[in-house]
Amino acid sequence: MSTPDLNLLVTLNALLAEGSVARAARRLRLSPSAMSRALARLRETTGDPLLVRAGRGLVPTPRALELRERVGQLVEEAEAALRPSETLNLKQLARTFTLRVREGFVENFGAELITRIAEQAPGVRLYFTQKLDKDSTPLRDGTIDLETGVVGDDTSPELRTQALFHDRFIGVVRRGHPLSEGPMTPERYAAGQHILVSRRGLRKGQIDETLERLGRERQIVTIVGSFSAALALARSSDLIVSVPERYTGNLRAGMCSFALPVPTSDVTISLLWHPRLDADPAHRWLRGCIRDVCAERRSDLLARFEAG
User: Fold this and answer.
1) CA–CA separation, 282 vs 301, rounded Å?
2) What would the DSSP string read from start to end of 80-112?
């Protein structure tokens, strides 16, 4: 079965609206002969005469009357689909966005983000889901609207990315821990008992490699798969954990933090999305909200650091 010429819908809509070949031709800026040929094609395609002569004019057949409203609606929807996007009305926007994020994002940025969105677009809902891997399929198939993470060699090259903030690793212990006071040195740090955070169950990380170059080795007594679990253990024991500073701000409330005495690489947390949503007005607005919230949290962190 051949694909029908959808341009005929526009022609049929003009003919049914005008009830005249000449007027329909003027409406579509065609010659009367071209419109007559188009009407002949429509009659052949539909198997119906559509417009028949009655005196000096044309009258629609029952099939034409049946099609008139449907064809008009189809043409109107097609024209709307091909027009540039209208100005986004946030107060009338009703949509659920799915965000795949690493542990710590909701705890540190979720409340501010939800408050901002509720003020601007009360009909928008956020669904946060845990990011367990870097598979880009959910972004590609539309299951996920946005995700946060570190862009690396294994990130799909088709994705759009934008940096949100830079983060560094710090040491964290319970309040009153021996390491909560005094100068921090590689020797003091390595002498304690440590928690390693690894989703893949690795036995050592970047910190261990740096300590080895300094001739030091720390004792890792347990490995956990999340920052929250590691911080809960450190909160109720003498164990030491090293975590990203900004990503764990609220998770380590009431604990003591210190700069690591060994150099580590900073990480850049980015926003990732599929290019098919790049120009979507609502999606652009949400990306802006996330960027603003992350920037404001950074300013708050710097202010507290300078004040303290």
Assistant:
1) 29
2) HHHSPPPPP-GGG--EEEEEEE-TTHIIIIIHH
